[in-house]
Specification:
heterodimer, A: about 190 residues, alpha/beta, Pyruvate-ferredoxin Oxidoreductase, domain 3, six-stranded mixed sheet, 6 strands, about 40% helix, B: about 550 residues, Rossmann fold, 3 domains, five-stranded mixed sheet, 20 helices
């Protein structure tokens, strides 16, 4: 088993939470992992990415080689496109939220962004904010996207659930419940599409 | 005790230092090194063992305090980003001459590709310059193991040891196996109570002692297991892989089937025997270094008359920027994959000041005043407020190094650029701004210094500021006239008032200070959240 995942978004959107959930689930399944994060300057509303590598074997590089990522998970549509050069052209999946985060003046028209996403073979785009709101809070949009990506992770859905339970356990029960619901809603959306 | 933890490279170093029995960590925050000290600050092990861990005013004071702890026989770690080592260079270089008593390990985190720095200097030069051993881990486990080893090495030879990492390792997470914790040293002074007195007569002796240790440092690197020559029957190329670059090399040989001999380097000075063995057995050498071409340049020599040496200097690898698997693949003539083309509609998304940040209001007011003058008069510094260089504010004209706003403004007024304005954060002010302000007072320079006091070290994530609630008093103590120390509250509703104050002080032809005081929106938010949580918990307890 071997999965190379690029996580993308804008500082503060919760991509490191997604990374922690996948990482914890991978550990539960006895897999090895390396995860390169971006800290510092990039947190201030700038682009943020993380390389997450999961494998049943030892992992060498902390960075995923170009053109070899199995999956891009993005919480922001334009950010998902920033890393398509990293994606494996033959089998890579792009899973992204459709909700733009506009904090720059030259943000392209959203229709063009979505069209470019749909032009990538093997893509899933989801109105994560709407789905998250339906589950109780827009704050869980990142977990909705994770749910939509869950069929392509190579990790069992149950492990993801367990990971969410352990990570959010420090917070209150409602937050655990909300995130489990968000995960399921995201997964349902992806399942219906395929 | 075997415990596997999922740790950032930074955290692995912190845990390694705790387990090596340090009695203190001394540091000033700086990306990508900050998490080391933060990890120790929040570690239960560290708390139980009373490891001192509060932030120092700057890297120089940190380094000197650590030398003091070493003098007293205990182990200490000093952490900084690469440019911090410039600030600490004086005590750092001299600590090699005094030697160490208790283990003394200096961690410097380099930032090739300048993810959040102003240059990509390679700290290994400093280690070589100081003539001390350098450790360069290739992964998180080595980061843990080498930190522990570095303390033993330091005490074995009575020398400081430099531990060098780069951003990628600092901020990448992987499993780390922890080993048994070592007890802290007891207080014990050096047997020679004069070795730390660097009077020329003693320094000469001490320097000769340091020179005498060099061959032992090299012999140690040959046997420690961190410099290893392995494998490969194809002698058309030999590879030297320093630190993290070893991973980028092995990424292309997942079954450990690298056809070429490789010398993996994790410890310096590099053992000449191993280097010679490699050199004699291959046709050409490819040097992989995540940083400047230090080993490559040494191997080439100034005349480059030996075997072909490939690397950054011959263009096999770009001269600037960090390495990655693709760069290494291309240098080895391996096939590289290509992903999809990036659509042309993708725009850059630079970092920006947070919504509600006090700096925005300060610079908006300053911009209005500066409309009265020709452009190019605002000297700034290192911190979040450096982002005011970008649109929409575009307020500042310089950012060079910690503290340079005030001193550059002095030089500019000396040259005739009057008025000149300096803008500096509270933490940067106590790091390196106070002495510059003293210069300004002593020479009565017509500058206005705006201190952006947000009560924290913001850019690195909100660490305690040494300036907390002290800025006004410091300015007065340095000799700024009380009536020209003005305090404003940077909020949109006080904009007109703030513009007036800034204008008045710029018109004053002496040293004036404006303290723009409002808490960082991030630390405020965190504090409020914590308060709400505590309140909720208290209610549910009742």
């Amino acid at each position: 088993m071997n999965k190379d995942i690029i996580l993308a978004g804008v500082g503060g959107q919760g991509i490191l939470t997604i990374a922690t959930v996948i990482g914890t689930a991978a550990l539960l399944e006895g897999l090895q992992l390396k995860q390169a994060e971006v800290h510092g300057m990039s947190q201030r509303g700038g682009e943020v990415q993380s390389h997450l590598r999961i494998s049943s074997n030892a992992i060498s590089s902390d960075l995923i080689p170009e053109g070899k990522a199995d999956l891009i998970i993005s919480i922001e549509p334009m950010e998902s496109l920033r890393y398509v050069h990293m994606l494996n052209k033959k089998k890579g999946w792009l899973v992204t939220s459709m909700n733009p985060f506009i904090n720059i003046s030259d943000y392209p028209p959203i229709e063009d962004v979505l069209q470019a996403i749909w032009d990538i073979p093997r893509n899933v785009s989801i109105d994560a904010e709407k789905v998250a709101k339906e589950q109780g809070s827009v704050k869980a949009a990142n977990i909705v996207v994770l749910g939509a990506a869950s069929p392509y992770l190579g990790i069992s859905y149950e492990s993801l659930e367990k990971a969410i339970e352990s990570i959010f356990a420090r917070k209150c029960k409602e937050i655990v419940k909300l995130n489990l619901k968000a995960l399921a809603a995201g997964k349902n959306y992806a399942d219906k599409r395929t | 005790m075997i415990q596997k933890l999922l740790l950032l490279g930074d955290e692995a170093i912190a845990q390694g230092a705790i387990d090596a029995g340090i009695s203190g960590v001394y540091a000033y925050p700086g990306t990508p090194s900050t998490e080391i000290t933060e990890y120790i600050q929040s570690s239960n092990d560290a708390r139980e063992r009373k490891i001192r861990s509060s932030w120092s005013a700057n890297e120089k004071t940190a380094m000197e305090s650590a030398i003091g702890m070493s003098y007293a026989g205990k182990r200490s770690l000093i952490c900084m980003k690469h440019v911090g080592l410039n600030v600490a260079a004086d005590p750092f270089i001299n600590s090699a001459i005094t030697g160490a008593n208790g283990g003394l390990v200096v961690l410097s985190a380099d930032d090739p590709s300048m993810h959040s720095s102003q240059n990509e200097q390679d700290s290994r030069f400093y280690g070589k310059f100081a003539m001390i051993p350098i450790m360069e881990p290739s992964n998180q486990q080595e980061a843990y193991d080498m930190t522990r080893y570095a303390f033993d090495l330091s005490e074995k030879f009575g020398t400081p040891v430099l531990l060098r990492i780069t951003t990628r390792l600092a901020h990448s997470r992987a499993g780390v196996v922890r080993k048994a914790i070592t007890e802290q040293n007891k207080l014990h002074l050096p047997s020679n109570l004069k070795q730390f007195i660097l009077l020329p007569s003693i320094a000469r002796k001490q320097f000769n002692i340091l020179l005498g240790k060099q061959s032992a440092f090299e012999a140690e690197a040959a046997t420690s297991g961190y410099d290893v020559l392995t494998g490969g029957n194809d002698t058309s190329i030999g590879v030297i892989a320093c630190g993290l670059s070893y991973n980028y090399l092995m990424e292309h040989y997942p079954d450990d089937d690298l056809p070429y001999p490789v010398l993996k380097i994790g410890q310096y000075p590099i053992p000449r025997d191993l280097l010679n063995q490699l050199y004699e057995s291959v046709d050409e050498i490819l040097v992989l270094e995540d940083g400047y071409p230090i080993i490559e340049e040494l191997l080439r020599g100034i005349l480059n008359k030996g075997k072909k040496i490939r690397g950054r200097m011959d263009g096999s690898i770009p001269l600037a920027g960090e390495l990655n698997p693709n760069i290494v693949a291309i240098a080895l003539n391996l096939k590289v994959e290509k992903g999809h083309d990036t659509p042309s509609i993708v725009e850059g998304r630079p970092p920006s000041l947070c919504e509600g940040c006090s700096h925005t209001d300060t610079f908006t007011a300053l911009n209005e005043v500066m409309l009265d003058y020709s452009p190019g008069r605002v000297f700034s510094d290192i911190g979040c407020y450096t982002l005011s260089a970008l649109p929409p504010l575009e307020s500042i004209n310089t950012s060079v190094d910690m503290g340079a706003s005030i001193t550059m403004a002095i030089g500019a007024t000396d040259a005739g650029l009057i008025p000149s304005i300096a803008t500096i954060g509270d933490s940067t002010f106590t790091h390196s701004g106070i002495t510059g302000l003293l210069d300004a007072v002593n020479t009565k320079s017509p500058i206005t210094v705006i201190i952006n006091d947000n009560s924290t070290t913001g850019m690195t994530g909100g660490q305690d500021s040494a300036a907390f609630e002290k800025v006004e008093e410091i300015c007065r103590g340095v000799g700024v006239e009380a009536e020209h120390i003005r305090i404003i509250k940077p909020l949109r509703r006080y904009h007109d008032e703030n513009v007036k104050v800034i204008r008045e002080e710029i018109n004053y032809k002496g040293v004036s200070v404006i303290i723009a005081k409002r808490e960082c929106i991030q630390t405020l938010g965190r504090r409020m959240k914590l308060k709400a949580l505590e309140k909720r918990e208290a209610e549910s307890d009742n």
